[in-house]
């Protein structure tokens, strides 16, 4: 359905607009060259979803613009069987002064639909978008979520053979996002090919059959979605360390007596090796302690909170093993292994050092949200709610021991 072979694309970057004119007049190069894509190749078959991951500037948007004909490649070939529609950016191809109904016609014509096809599917598009009477209002009065609804509705009803999706589903309420995901699955089951670009790692793991990772315009990984997500997170982690000074940022905001402090901390999935892991995977927390003076009663505590700030799980070493001692100047590493059988989402870890069972008497060191991690996808059986609890199901249970029904 989709074949991309040895694709190359570069752009000329000029320091100022006048340099472009001077280069044209003198013939002397006054530009720098940015290589957006460098030998990219892949295939997407019928009924297959290929995810594309990569940090900003990796080449994802350039790739999609080449595939939709917005840009032309410097070298390489792109072959797509049948009509291709793309959800690249909200409002692409829409006129804000026209009504939603008028934009259906204009946008559908650009996607290659005939007037007869548009008339036959117009009501289905309106029904799917759920815009109601707003369909006759100017698009400039729409929210971003309403524009996304209309754009997706037109694209999915254009009868495409291939669908290109670029972060379009990140806007809108949860209900409509689920509706779009359901429609994408139906499109896949009908044999459609999908190229799915997203930073939503859980969506990539759930929806995609394969995934590739772009870095500096090259394909650095192609394979199962979980492996691609793990590599992507390692790339992002390196970028965070290089650009933001993660250690210094982590130390900012800590408080306490500082008689002992945590000088280094990490929380990584045992299998993923990154801050994104699957539900059910072991979360390994490593902490480096430095005691400024001798202490006879020390407890280490952690608290995991979800994105709403709700406490999900907390524990301290005093509750498990009692207090431990530290000598003046001592450095010690403590390791915790937690089975993170919790729902997909983003979480923070608060770290604390104190005496006894709580920090109210002697708080040596405390830092809210010192670490962050994300749960995406499932390692074990799926579940609903906040966490997976031990559960046994017997489909052939005996009725022995149950009280007899009273006769009436």
Automatic annotation (TrEMBL):
<dbReference type="InterPro" id="IPR003593">
    <property type="entry name" value="AAA+_ATPase"/>
</dbReference>
<dbReference type="InterPro" id="IPR027417">
    <property type="entry name" value="P-loop_NTPase"/>
</dbReference>
<feature type="domain" description="ABC transporter">
    <location>
        <begin position="2"/>
        <end position="241"/>
    </location>
</feature>
<dbReference type="Pfam" id="PF00005">
    <property type="entry name" value="ABC_tran"/>
</dbReference>
<keyword id="KW-0547">Nucleotide-binding</keyword>
<keyword id="KW-0067">ATP-binding</keyword>
<dbReference type="InterPro" id="IPR050683">
    <property type="entry name" value="Bact_Polysacc_Export_ATP-bd"/>
</dbReference>
<dbReference type="Pfam" id="PF14524">
    <property type="entry name" value="Wzt_C"/>
</dbReference>
<dbReference type="GO" id="GO:0005524">
    <property type="term" value="F:ATP binding"/>
</dbReference>
<dbReference type="InterPro" id="IPR015860">
    <property type="entry name" value="ABC_transpr_TagH-like"/>
</dbReference>
<keyword id="KW-0813">Transport</keyword>
<protein>
    <submittedName>
        <fullName>ABC transporter ATP-binding protein</fullName>
    </submittedName>
</protein>
<dbReference type="InterPro" id="IPR003439">
    <property type="entry name" value="ABC_transporter-like_ATP-bd"/>
</dbReference>
<dbReference type="InterPro" id="IPR029439">
    <property type="entry name" value="Wzt_C"/>
</dbReference>
<comment type="similarity">
    <text>Belongs to the ABC transporter superfamily.</text>
</comment>
């Amino acid at each position: 359905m989709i074949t991309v072979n040895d694709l190359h694309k570069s752009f000329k970057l000029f320091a100022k607009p006048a340099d472009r004119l001077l280069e044209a007049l003198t013939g002397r190069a006054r530009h720098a060259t940015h290589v957006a894509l460098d030998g990219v190749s892949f295939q997407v078959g019928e009924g297959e979803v290929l995810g594309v991951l990569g940090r900003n500037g990796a080449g994802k948007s350039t790739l999609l613009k080449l595939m939709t004909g917005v840009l032309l490649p410097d070298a390489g070939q792109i072959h797509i069987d049948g009509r291709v529609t793309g959800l690249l950016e909200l409002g692409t191809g829409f006129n804000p002064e026209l009504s939603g109904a008028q934009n259906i016609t204009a946008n559908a014509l650009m996607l290659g639909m005939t007037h007869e096809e548009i008339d036959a599917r117009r009501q289905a598009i309106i029904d799917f978008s759920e815009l109601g009477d707003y369909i006759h209002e100017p698009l400039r009065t729409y929210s971003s979520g309403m524009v996304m609804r209309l754009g997706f509705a037109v694209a999915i009803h254009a009868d495409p053979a291939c669908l290109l999706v670029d972060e379009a589903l990140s806007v809108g309420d949860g209900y409509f996002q689920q509706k779009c995901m359901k429609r994408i699955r139906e499109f896949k089951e009908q044999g459609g090919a999908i190229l799915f670009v997203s930073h939503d790692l859980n969506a990539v793991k759930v929806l995609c059959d394969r995934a590739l990772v772009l870095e500096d315009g090259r394909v650095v990984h192609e394979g199962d979605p979980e492996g691609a997500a793990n590599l992507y997170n390692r790339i992002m982690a390196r970028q965070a360390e290089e650009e933001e000074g993660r250690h210094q940022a982590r130390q900012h905001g800590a408080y306490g007596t500082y008689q002992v402090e945590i000088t280094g901390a990490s929380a990584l999935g045992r299998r993923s090796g990154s801050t994104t892991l699957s539900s059910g995977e072991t979360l390994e927390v490593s902490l480096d302690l430095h005691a400024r003076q001798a202490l006879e009663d020390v407890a280490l505590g952690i608290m995991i909170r979800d994105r709403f700030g709700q406490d999900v799980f907390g524990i301290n070493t005093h509750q498990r093993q009692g207090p431990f001692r530290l000598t003046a100047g001592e450095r010690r590493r403590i390791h915790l292994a937690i089975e993170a059988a919790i729902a997909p989402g983003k979480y923070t870890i608060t770290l604390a050092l104190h005496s006894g069972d709580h920090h109210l008497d002697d708080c040596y060191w405390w830092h809210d949200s010192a670490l962050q991690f994300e749960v995406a996808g499932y390692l074990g059986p799926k579940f609903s709610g906040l966490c997976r609890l031990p559960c046994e199901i017997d489909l052939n249970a005996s009725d022995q021991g149950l009280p007899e029904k009273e006769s009436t």
